[in-house]
Amino acid sequence: MEKLLQWSIDAAQNPGHAGEPDPKLLSQLFGFDNPRSTMRDSLQEAVQATDLASRTNALLEFTDLVEDMNNANEIGNLWEPLLYLVNDSEAQIRTVAFSAIAAATQNNEKSQNDLVATKAGIPRIMEHINEADRDVAAKALFALSCAIGHCPGAYEQFAATDGWSILSYIVENETVGEKMDKKQQRIVSLVSALVSVQQFRPVFSELEKTQIVATLEKWYPFAGNYKERLEDLFILLKDQKYDEPRLLPMKASSS
């Protein structure tokens, strides 16, 4: 709307020099396009097209659409085909499907709750957070982080799906090289999302049963630009009086 307003001002001040307004903006303003219809068509193409490029482009279009919170809130029964795509045989499709889930649920309470209401959403994502393709696993972890952040319902499904045992297993079996890779960074994001849920005592209780925090402390020297994220996480845990003696003074040791 702001872009359309600016165009109208330019057109009034400089007749003949403002160019043409963006057709997409006009369509949105006057209702020529139905975003939900476009989302449905994009997902249908992603599921039914016969070549990978067309399917990928259609799913990317869907992802762009659901970055808009209003569109994400209208996904409704389109969650079913989107969740179907996370089990696709093509890693590229799985990766973009997880990107779409992340785009739709990040900082969006309604969309998070809509995903939770599908019952299958959180468990389906969790099936892929440790798959052999590390790029897909990283995207699945990111999608799970976005879905869980500040969302008690998503956290409850995570916990009910043996999420803490699965996450603990993943963390304990990761090997960090000279620098944390994308999957390991997304593990940190997931732990941060879990801690963000307004149920601190259950989260801390689960953390106390695992070696997750102790392992993340060991990752710190290799965290690169994720050091600040780890520091923030450790400070938050310390502020909530979680096992203070074991936490390292990360700010002081960041040389």
TL;DR?
This protein is mainly alpha-helical and 255 residues long.
Describe the structure.
GO terms for molecular function: adenyl-nucleotide exchange factor activity. It comes from Wickerhamiella sorbophila. This is Hsp70 nucleotide exchange factor FES1. The chain has 255 residues and is an all-alpha fold. It has 2 domains: 105 residues; 94 residues. It is 67% helix and 0% strand. The protein has 16 helices and no strands. The longest helix has 15 residues. The chain is globular and about 50 Å long. The N and C termini lie far apart (47 Å).
- Cα end-to-end separation: 47 Å
Low-confidence stretches: 242-255
Domain module tally: 2
Q: Report the sheet with the most strands, covering strand number, pairing sense and barrel closure.
A: none
Supply the helix-strand structural class.
Answer: mainly alpha
Strand element count? 0
Q: What is the element string, with H for helices and E for strands? A: HHHHHHHHHHHHHHHH
Approximate helicity band: 55-70%
State the helix count: 16
Oligomer: single chain
What does the overall shape look like? globular
Beta content comes to: under 5%
Rg, please? Answer: 21 Å
GO molecular function: adenyl-nucleotide exchange factor activity
Pfam families: Fes1
Keywords: Repeat
Domain Nucleotide exchange factor Fes1: 1-75
